[in-house]
C-alpha cells in the first residue's frame, strides 16, 4: 500500500523541476511574519485528500497557486491564468508506467485575510500496487 505522500511528492517534484521561481510548500501554509519570514507575493501549496486502499489506489491532490491581489479584493487574474496553465501542462510530462495523473477540476478562490486569490487545480492520481 502507498500513502498520499507518494502522490503529493510526485506532484511537488514535477513543479520543483521547473524553473518558475515560485516557493512551493507541502500540505499547509507556513506561518509568515513581517520580520524573519515575510510572505512572498506568490507561492504554491500542494496538499491531498485521503488515499484509497486496494490494488488501484486513488488520491486527489490539490495544487493551490496563491498570488497577491493587484488592489484590495482585485485578483491578478493574468498571473493566475498563466501559472494555472503551467501547472496543467505539467500533467503531460508524467511517466504513466509509475502512476496516472489526470486533471480533474480548477477554480479560483479569494483569501481575504492574506489579500490574495488562489487558483485551485485538483488532480486525480492513481497508483498501482
CATH first level = Alpha Beta
Shape: elongated
Main beta sheet: 5 strands, mixed
Widest sheet: strand order? 1-2-3-5-4
Total of domains: 1
Q: Which percent range fits the helix content?
A: 10-25%
Q: Assembly type of the shown chains?
A: single chain
Order of helices and strands: HEEEHEE
Question: Could you explain the architecture of this structure?
Answer:
The chain is built from 2 helices and 5 strands; from the N terminus they run H-E-E-E-H-E-E. The protein has one domain (about 5-129): 2-Layer Sandwich (Alpha-Beta Plaits), CATH 3.30.70. The longest helix is centred in the middle third of the chain and has 14 residues, at about 75-90. The protein starts with a helix and ends with a strand. A hairpin with a 4-residue loop joins strand 4 (about 100-110) and strand 5 (about 115-129). It is of the alpha+beta class and about 130 residues long. The protein has a 5-stranded mixed sheet, with helices on one face. The relative contact order is 0.23.
